Amino acid sequence: MTVQAPAARVAVITGSTSGIGLAIARRLCRDGFHVVVTGRNVKRGETVTAELGAAATFVPLDLTTPGDVVVNNAAIDHTGDLLDVPAHVTQQVFQINTLAAVAALQEGARRMQQGGAIINITSRLASAGVPTMAIYSATKGALAALTTAAAVELAPRNIRVNAIAPGMTQTPL
């Protein structure tokens, strides 16, 4: 898909139809970026782009398929007793929170011919133990480790890779 952006810079933000992703989209619009809002919920995406106006474009995106990204934000939550979590649930949470971010980071970095920036949204839970949050925490810990390694590996290509680890944030998640 080709996006005709009125601004010189474009930001693609996964999971930006609500919560932290929406706040990032609002800020980047104010900072002069043309923002590509993504998410699975078309109605919310249309509402967000109506709010942001001409500085935003909505692209429906399900992160279980490969895609381009600048900000890896999309995630699903999981709470439950660690010993009771079925394998398929663990796989789903890792697929969206970690593996989709790996694929998006890889594809984004491949396209950054002149360097660039990749930002991964992790969590305070990547380094803090909270009962019933082990699976979610593990996905965010993996993303934090990926960020560190990718930053070193991609630095020679002038690609910065950083993580933001928000604490408790009031969002639908």
Quick summary of this structure?
This protein has 173 residues and is an alpha/beta fold. The protein contains four helices and six strands; from the N terminus they run E-H-E-H-E-E-H-E-H-E.
Characterise this structure.
The protein has 173 residues and is an alpha/beta fold. The chain has a single domain, classed as NAD(P)-binding Rossmann-like Domain (Rossmann fold, 3-Layer(aba) Sandwich). Helix content is 40%, strand content 17%. It has four helices and six strands; from the N terminus they run E-H-E-H-E-E-H-E-H-E. The strands form two sheets. Strands 1-2-3 form a three-stranded parallel beta sheet, with helices on one face. Strands 4-5-6 form a three-stranded parallel beta sheet, with helices on one face. Helix 3 packs parallel to helix 4. It is globular, with a radius of gyration of 16 Å. The mean pLDDT is 88.
Oligomer state equals single chain
From N to C, what is the helix and strand string? EHEHEEHEHE
CATH architecture: 3-Layer(aba) Sandwich
Regarding CATH, which class? Answer: Alpha Beta
Unreliable sequence segments = none
What descriptive keywords fit this protein?
alpha/beta; 4 helices; three-stranded parallel β-sheet; 6 strands; globular
Topology overview:
Elements: E1 10-13, H1 19-30, E2 34-39, H2 42-52, E3 56-60, E4 71-72, H3 87-111, E5 116-121, H4 134-154, E6 159-164
Parallel strand pairs: 1-2, 2-3, 4-5, 5-6
